[in-house]
Design goal:
alpha+beta, MetI-like fold, 15 helices, 374 residues, four-stranded antiparallel β-sheet, single chain, 2 domains
Length: 374
């Protein structure tokens, strides 16, 4: 078939396609956005069931494994007659250096700790609905700990704690953006739809919120939280604090869209047809720029994740025993930790990858939602 014929077919398909179909077709052509989608989905799968991907209990302490270095994972076993896909690690042994008298970890090539896919391990909760012992990787010998990314000063598995911390850090972004979206849509919609004195009053509030320095406000409000609050309440208040200054930009975007749409012909036709104001707003106006809202939300989630990580890293956000990426990065605040256990920076790599994936996804959605880019 000629290129001209293909162009005609594509033009006909585009002419009858819905807004969501056009967005999806434009999004699929954005390679970085598809990479970001895969990364984001993978991170949130881990956040939903972190215990399945963890190998060890993230809260279990092992004083004999303090600052144990990462173990090299071997996927192919060639010790037999042939070869087989059988993951294993060599057991670590704590010895004293004869020259410096320092306690160091060495690997014993004669002792192998086999790992099993979809094996049984420690018990964990799945979204609070039921409990399970199934893990993606499990050790064949519970007495031999497997530290793929090393251990911290208390002998806790860094890899398992990163998996568990994804649940808090990534959900803070979702919950915080949901609260910001609710406030932004409500106030921005009222401001743009009704105008007049209502618009003037809401815009002055938005300008006041935007004039506030975000980081000092976050620090002040976080420091005002009582330290003896339970982890669940502390988590909820941190998300509220992050949402207090995150709604203003979205409210302005929504207001501008409402100002331009309220005089459109389809809105006037719905009003003349006797449709209620709520129906006009939720059935006609909001769906027309829903793709822009989704793109704004996707770009706002990384900012929420970075804000929670920064507050927890400074000791003003979530507190132990709550596990988040920011709490884990507090372990790498001093020089001794950096020199002794550089693998404690691994949660920072998880933060970087999550933010990159979400930014790729958000940029792709923003470009796909723009009709002038098609």
């Amino acid at each position: 078939m000629s290129e001209a014929a293909l162009g005609v077919i594509d033009a006909k398909r585009t002419a009858v396609a819905s807004q969501w179909q056009l967005v999806w077709w434009a999004f699929r052509r954005h390679r970085l956005a598809m990479i970001g989608l895969v990364m984001t989905v993978a991170f949130y799968i881990v956040a939903i069931i972190p215990g399945f991907f963890a190998i060890n209990d993230p809260s279990q302490q092992n004083p004999r494994a303090a600052y144990q270095p990462p173990a090299a994972l071997h996927l192919i076993d060639t010790s037999g007659d042939g070869w087989s896909i059988d993951p294993y690690i060599h057991a670590s042994v704590l010895k004293r250096d004869p020259e410096t008298l320092e306690m160091i970890y060495t690997t014993d090539p004669k002792r192998k700790v086999e790992l099993h896919f979809l094996g049984q391990g420690y018990e964990y909760s799945v979204l609070g609905l039921f409990r399970s012992r199934l893990h993606l990787l499990s050790s064949s010998n519970p007495r031999e700990p497997v530290f793929l990314l090393g251990a911290d000063r208390l002998g806790r598995c860094v890899f398992s704690r990163i998996m568990q911390g994804a649940q808090i850090s990534l959900s803070v972004g979702l919950v915080g953006v949901f609260l910001s979206l609710t406030i932004g849509l409500l106030l921005g919609g009222i401001s743009g739809y009704y105008g007049g004195c209502t618009d003037f009053a809401i815009q002055r509030v938005i300008e006041f919120v935007l004039a506030l320095p975000s980081i000092p406000i976050w620090l002040a409000l976080s420091a005002a939280l009582p330290q003896n609050w339970p982890a669940a309440l502390n988590y909820f208040m941190i998300t509220v604090i992050l949402s207090l200054t995150g709604w203003a930009q979205l409210a302005r975007v929504v207001r501008g869209r409402f100002l331009s749409l309220r005089t459109e012909e389809f809105v006037m036709a719905a009003r003349l047809d006797g449709a209620s104001e709520s129906r006009i707003i939720f059935r006609h106006m909001l769906p027309s720029f829903a793709s822009h809202i989704i793109a704004s939300i996707t770009l706002a989630i990384p900012a929420m994740i970075l804000a929670e990580t920064s507050l927890s890293f400074l000791g003003l956000g979530l507190q132990p025993p709550t596990i988040s990426w920011g709490v884990l990065l507090r372990e790498a605040q001093n020089i001794r930790s950096i020199a002794t256990a550089p693998w404690l920076f691994a949660p920072g790599i998880a933060v970087v990858l999550a933010v990159i994936g979400l930014n790729f996804l958000g940029d792709g959605l923003r470009d796909a939602a723009d009709p002038y880019n098609r």
